Amino acid sequence: MVNSIDPLTRLHGIVSSYLSEVLGVDIGVVERLLAPPPRREYGDLGFPLMRFARSSNASADSIVESLRGKLWERGITWASPRLEAGYLNIVFDVEKLGDEVFRLLSSGWRPSMARTSRPETIVVEHTSANPIHPLHLGHARNSSLGDALARLLKARGHRVNTRFYIDDVGRQAVVASLGFRLSGVTPGELASRMGVKVDHAVGWVYAVTHNALEAVAARRRGETSKVDEALSILARLKERGDKEVFERILESVGSLEDPERLVSDMMRRYERGEEPEKSLIRGVVSAVLEGFRETLRRFGVDFDDWDWESDLLWSRLVEKIIEEARRSPFLTVHKDAIALDIPRIAREVLARDPEASSYIKLPKSLEIPPLILVRSDGTTLYTTRDLAYSVYKFRVTGADRVINVIGADQRLPQLQIRLALLGLGYRREALNMMHYDYEIVSLPGRRMSSRRGEYVTLDELLDMAKARSVREVESRNPGADRGWIEATAEKIAVGAIRFALVRPGRLKPITLDVERILDLKENTAPYLQYTHARASSILEKHGEIDYLKAHPASLEEGARREIFVEALRFPLVSAKAADDLAPEDLASYLLRLADMFNSWYQKDSVIHEEWEGARHAKAALVLLVKSVIGEGLRLLGVEPLEKM
Fold first, then answer.
1. pLDDT of 332-364, one tens digit each?
2. Which one, 141, 150, 362, 377, has least CB within 10 Å?
3. Domain regions of the chain by residue span
4. DSSP states of 332-371 as a string?
5. Helices 558-568 & 570-579 angle (0-180, nearest 10)
């Protein structure tokens, strides 16, 4: 870590560098192990010195004494190292540390994430929803995770490029576009007729067309139960949309001589960039993207680049990958289609490349099939296009790393793609591409299916959360300006959803309870926003802080000391969350700090403190906590509030 004006980051850097040098241990290992001990009485920072000192020429005692001198040489007199039970424990002199922090606060300094000394160019691809219906609850988790990662990595000092992959090639986009061709209306016209956002209109047409095609195909196969199922779904869809357009689609699909052949022909023609398919499908997808952008703006998410899957085909990047595969020794035939022999790549390439084997870990029980590149009808698969896109992301950005935020259900295809890249000679790309997977999210008692037109859209979720937030804000602020109430409720709703989708960790399935995530007393974003607003209120009542009168010794008192030291850990905690790609760790830290603060200020008044030195010191402590919670919330995509 680079030196920082932040005192704890500076201390951490000096100690880590010294221990790394004297013990001959990688500095990254030292940085990770130099952490708060499990119990406060042991000290404020601890390191398992004896684990490494035995193999060094210096004794543990001499290392501690030498470190003490090094800290003093660097002007750090508030941290005393000592050796206890084989551990290097560092105890802070809070009075001296408080002097330094008060000086920094008076100059306008506020805690921020420690910057890395090894900045990288990192691509974060996230959300990348199929452009055939509105963004739904699952996409909200993807967006929340992906945007939080991008924010953390940027704050850490990395060069971050965010990208949205527009999956406009394949059956789903064709089916939605076919529905508009058969109905004779445009997405914009239908949205106006239905009184909905344009992406909602497209989602309805996709579901109607898909189920009409299913009914026709099942009838021709004589599968009565499947016909009945499709007709039941269609009856529900009819009641939710434009009945005239519904009847046109149903009648037109029923009159088609060979609907599946028509869909396949449209897929092939679009892959080749032929008209009228090119303009039709691009137009429908562009309309959905317009709806996406509106929702994402409301959700506080944006992207640096939007990449069209079809452009990969039309620019011949996909064809180049296929040509390389045809020349590869790993080319095979699988299910009458050309494919890459992924099991053979795993056996042969990983066996002679230990580094690659350590990066690409294969689950022992997982059977990995070959990766089909081109169907028998000549159309490509999405995984083939993903291969080309993986190479493209590295080449167009010069990325050191690419992080793909994609659901856990895509673990096998993502593993196949990395192995395929390795087999085709794209070793750097294969070893520096990460599948950042996450588990499903649902609402109690609701199931989702885009083909049935049954899903909880992010728009609906935001509206639901905002309506509940409006009632809460109104009850707390009777007679307040309506515009302020609406704006505040919107910020609470967005923050509540984003925080709830990040806090549990990406590998935990979530059932989202809207009432609970808005609770001001729960471990929620509104709870943190309320804590921030409470700190603002205390500071407003206190007035200007006089740092010359603030007495840092008053911070030695138990609860104050713990809160003071915990708040100062923010730069290091947030840096580790960024390095570990773990926004949930930052969320847990903020909740812990808020709990400590809320438990303290109710028992230890700031504005009614009689001793002036303690009153200004406690006000400075409130400012420190407020700054940390505010910055932490922003890193997670939640807007801190001054008043609730």
1. 999 989 999 999 999 999 989 999 999 998 888
2. 377
3. 7-92, 171-301, 316-442, 458-636
4. EEETTEEEE-HHHHHHHTTTT-HHHHHHSPPPTT-----E
5. 40
Residue 443 has a pLDDT of 83
Among candidate residues 508, 528, 507, the one with its CA nearest the CA of residue 517: 528
pLDDT tens readout for residues 414-438: 999 999 999 999 999 999 999 999 9
Helix locations, 241-276, DSSP H? 243-255, 259-271
- Measuring CA to CA, which residue among 560, 613, 566, 614 is closest to residue 589? 566
Q: How far apart are CA 150 and CA 302, in angstroms?
A: 10
The values of phi and psi at residue 214, to 5°, are -65, -45
Assign residue 398 a region (left: φ > 0; alpha: ψ between -120 and 50; beta: otherwise): left
Reply yes or no on domain 316-442 having CATH 3.30.1490.20.
no
Q: Where are the alpha helices (DSSP H) in 481-604?
A: 482-502, 514-517, 525-542, 558-568, 570-579, 583-601
As a whole number of angstroms, the distance between CA 559 and CA 625 comes to 13
Tokens of 389: 């896109």
3-state class of 383 per DSSP? Answer: helix
CA dihedral 447, 449, 450, 454 (to 10 degrees): -40
- As given in the structure block, the two tokens for residue 150 are 């991008």
- Is-above-0.90 flag for pTM? yes
